[in-house]
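CobW/HypB/UreG domain-containing protein: structure, please.
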Amino acid sequence: MQDDDDEEENPPLAVQIHQIDESSIPQDTVGVTVITGYLGSGKSTLINFILSAQHGKKIAVILNEFGEEIGVERAMINEGDGGALVEEWVELANGCVCCTVKHSLVQALEQLIQRKERLDHILLETTGLADPAPLASILWLDDQLESAVRLDSIVTVTDAKNLRLQLNEHRDSSTFPEAFLQIAFADMIILNKVDLVSQDESDPMVSDILEDLEKELRNINSLAKIIRSVRCQVDLCNILDYRAYDAKHVAHLEGLLKESQSVSSRHDSSVRTFCICEQKQVDINKVKLWLEDILWEKKYNMDVYRCKGVLAVHNSDQLHTIQAVREIYEIVPARRWKQEENQMNRIVFIGKASDSDYRHLSIFTVEILMRTFSGIPSMSVLHQHGKKSIFNGREVEKIVPMCLPLVLSVT
Ligand SMILES: Nc1nc2c(ncn2[C@@H]2O[C@H](COP(=O)(O)OP(=O)(O)OP(=O)(O)O)[C@@H](O)[C@H]2O)c(=O)[nH]1
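Here you go.
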């Protein structure tokens, strides 16, 4: 590989998005749904289902088929009933966002957008071997595209019959991290092929299997919505216009963040969810520094794939949202706090760390929180959910659970 290429293959530069005036974002942006999932899980089945459904939308599809014989990708536009089928070709390498790939994707999207008056949504199917994050980063941030397309959501299709096997095979996630990454980055997880688990869903054994699979998925990513399906026949409200990254649709995010606290702990997967709850208003600049330490400097040994959260910001009546995909993050005001509302900060990280790193992270987090959250003269107790109390973060004897709601009591 050439030096230049190496440079291009590096992760995107860390970019902080400054507060956006939401009113300046055009409302007619075209949503892009990234569809990812393990080989054979049902991605194409989902796309075919969407294209053939009666939703009245005109949808473009960019396919990133990747294989030795194929090695090419195609973009198709389904112009709906009576519309012509237009094909374009897009070169996307296997999950790596080198300059060429980025350029090709941006070019393909630009071509599609030029037809915007006839286009309602874009589906981007990644190869079953891809890490969806680089694509998501391009879509979320690309300057050329920012005003014309928006990342709507990342949908991960999983195969109910083979999921456990696939995850167990790659349990340490170093041999094939993509299997975990695809789940970790998802906003929506389709647990497909439930018919192969059994024909009879009313059978308690079968619901146990499916529930266990859902638990397994939640252990990796407690923020994603999970829906079961046969042949990806899902309610398309969950796919088209889901707006997972849209601060204006904060109610959904808040619901997810609340639910994510109740996830049980588990220690055998290195990709997991980590939650922080804090009641005091925070200093937004300190939170940014803290977040940059974690996301950019990789301090505390945590490799964060995804972060979502809501913040109660000091000197602001607005609930702010945090979204991060890898190194890229944004903190934006989303809505006014209601008077009776409990202004609680909730931040959820989905990432990878060894058990001992988690222990360190918990200690570091306490230290970070002590210097991050404003107006905290001293912190008396850190209550670690379901475990023993920790004083000033110094006493962490057990492995930190997968989901760690931290509650700081302040005196
Ligand atoms: N029984 C059953 N088969 C399914 C279901 N969904 C998809 N399939 C079948 O599974 C196979 C793989 O589905 P695809 O949609 O091609 O999967 P994919 O993820 O696009 O596959 P790759 O592009 O190779 O990664 C096909 O034969 C589908 O017909 C389902 O819910 N139940």
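Notes: Residues 1-26, 66-99, 261-269, 372-411 have pLDDT under 50 and may be disordered.
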